[in-house]
Amino acid sequence: METNLKKRVIIIGGGYAGVSLLHKLKSKKNIELILIDKSQSHLLQTHIHKYISGYYSKEDITFNHEKYCKENSIEFICEEVSNINYKDNYVITRENLLYHYDYLVIATGSISIFPSQIQNVIEYTKDIKRIDNLDYYRNKFKKLLESSPMNRSIAVVGGGVSGLQIACEMAYTIKSKGLNKENIQVTLIEGMNTILPGMDPFLVEKSIQRCKELDIKVINNLFASKILEDSIILSNDDEISYDILIFVIGAIGNNISNSDKNIEENPRNQLVVDDYYKVKPYKNVFAIGDIVQAIDKNTNDFQAPTAQASRMQAELTGKNITKDINGDTLISNNISNKGILIDLGGPNCAIGRLLNVNLSGKIALWMKKLIYSLHTKKFS
Ligand SMILES: Cc1cc2nc3c(=O)[nH]c(=O)nc-3n(C[C@H](O)[C@H](O)[C@H](O)COP(=O)(O)OP(=O)(O)OC[C@H]3O[C@@H](n4cnc5c(N)ncnc54)[C@H](O)[C@@H]3O)c2cc1C
Known about the structure:
alpha/beta, 2 domains, 11 helices, binds flavin-adenine dinucleotide, about 375 residues, five-stranded parallel sheet, four-stranded parallel sheet, FAD/NAD(P)-binding domain
């Protein structure tokens, strides 16, 4: 009897957003939960710099969907959703299987961008959001460290949070092995006039200082214009050689192709949602995480695509799905950015700005570890 009254909620994508929502809804008696993810595990993108460097193991940054779902009576389907029929309430997978839903949550995240204007960028770079590519970089870095290196080079293109964290972690690891910039030079290339463009001056200054400490060569105001097999040509025609090249210049929404012209997308392939994270005009479809264009309640700007925003959106959507099922009034968007924490290489160096308070040293590290353990304890 109870089974018939259950509402089937399908979540596409078990990243930060999808997993946080599963956690929120897993004990609801009137909901049948299904996770569909093309990947076997949840990848903690926030900590991939520590995987590339060899500091974290695969177990530290990936969490098996099958195991989590089994333990929490959730159905897991390891497949890629290739289309959604919004009008008739079903999704279709690459295997041509069809799954009906009462409620759908799209949480498919984002994919890294590799602009075609940069010659050969696809040929010589790999998306760091994929675990097999992370294995490739991790192995390459390990081999480089073990090769008695001289005049070798690592180039990281993109001086935002992701690129900075990767460059610092690799440079720290090089130093911790007793090597220096004559052995392996880490270069961080950022097209704007500073690393962490647009961020608070405290974070920028501390990061520049840390790059100096770690002998990272920072190049500003120049873009990568062409990639060759072992070097990058910059916009002023300078050539930077590399043994390892990592490209992290941004991401766009990982949208599922569909022919529904009613769905609004922005130029960054993100889904435009209403004040309840519903995908207009469909009342039973929500979208959360990097795939969504949402407004920050405090600043009225667009929310940055972060793990933090994904988790808060999942929390709100979990409440709203329950309310919707019960016929209660939904809670409108109340999400605003609380700040940021940035790893600056090694086990002891982090900075941050939370609720307008600058953090560095042990407090920033402690906060970063706390956030990691709050998220990962869902899987323990
Ligand atoms: C290097 C790096 C460092 C970062 N550091 C921070 C940080 O310090 N703090 C912070 O807050 N944020 C950080 N972020 C951003 C954060 O990781 C993202 O905002 C977050 O991962 C978004 O979560 P999500 O659930 O929307 O997407 P994801 O975590 O990308 O998950 C999407 C899931 O959907 C699945 N999927 C996609 N398409 C389909 C499909 N068609 N069918 C089935 N499954 C599908 C994927 O397999 C994946 O499991 C960082 C990102 C990177 C890359």
